[in-house]
Amino acid sequence: MAKGKIKDIVEEILSQFLDENGLELYNIEYVKEAKDWFLRVYIDKLEGSEEEYVSTDDCELVSRFLSEKLDALDPIEQNYYLEISSPGMDRTLLKEKDYVRYAGKQVDVNLYQAIDGKKALSGELVGIINDNLVIKDEKANQIEIPMNKVAKTKLTVVF
């Protein structure tokens, strides 16, 4: 079965269940690594939730539910490992809503090609404005980067 179709099935199975449990779907990966296939489902707390982080109990709850549903439907032909986890503290921002949710947080930005001699930038996330990623550097200067030049944006882990 096509990877896209598997992701759609998983999203459909989980949609209501996650919502009922104060969670949301962050990302789904269905990948082959060496000889093994992995179905990785990343979950997050709903924005505004009392609890900020996904617990191991949350992951176990989703894993049991999804495993049972996938076993019943059997949409995946080959053997695979099911992994449920949070996106982590250094999560990659994937969707526009992630850029809105984490505005004001520190981010690390990797670029496809250097801008002013730099392929990596850090700063405070302002958001996406007119298809540009906007961050503030340490001197509070706004830097605008066309989104088509951004390879990856991740939250900075600050201790």
TrEMBL record:
<dbReference type="InterPro" id="IPR028998">
    <property type="entry name" value="RimP_C"/>
</dbReference>
<feature type="domain" description="Ribosome maturation factor RimP N-terminal">
    <location>
        <begin position="14"/>
        <end position="90"/>
    </location>
</feature>
<dbReference type="GO" id="GO:0006412">
    <property type="term" value="P:translation"/>
</dbReference>
<feature type="domain" description="Ribosome maturation factor RimP C-terminal">
    <location>
        <begin position="93"/>
        <end position="159"/>
    </location>
</feature>
<comment type="function">
    <text>Required for maturation of 30S ribosomal subunits.</text>
</comment>
<keyword id="KW-0690">Ribosome biogenesis</keyword>
<comment type="similarity">
    <text>Belongs to the RimP family.</text>
</comment>
<dbReference type="InterPro" id="IPR036847">
    <property type="entry name" value="RimP_C_sf"/>
</dbReference>
<dbReference type="Pfam" id="PF17384">
    <property type="entry name" value="DUF150_C"/>
</dbReference>
<protein>
    <recommendedName>
        <fullName>Ribosome maturation factor RimP</fullName>
    </recommendedName>
</protein>
<dbReference type="InterPro" id="IPR028989">
    <property type="entry name" value="RimP_N"/>
</dbReference>
<keyword id="KW-0963">Cytoplasm</keyword>
<dbReference type="Pfam" id="PF02576">
    <property type="entry name" value="RimP_N"/>
</dbReference>
<dbReference type="InterPro" id="IPR003728">
    <property type="entry name" value="Ribosome_maturation_RimP"/>
</dbReference>
<dbReference type="GO" id="GO:0000028">
    <property type="term" value="P:ribosomal small subunit assembly"/>
</dbReference>
<dbReference type="InterPro" id="IPR035956">
    <property type="entry name" value="RimP_N_sf"/>
</dbReference>
<dbReference type="GO" id="GO:0005829">
    <property type="term" value="C:cytosol"/>
</dbReference>
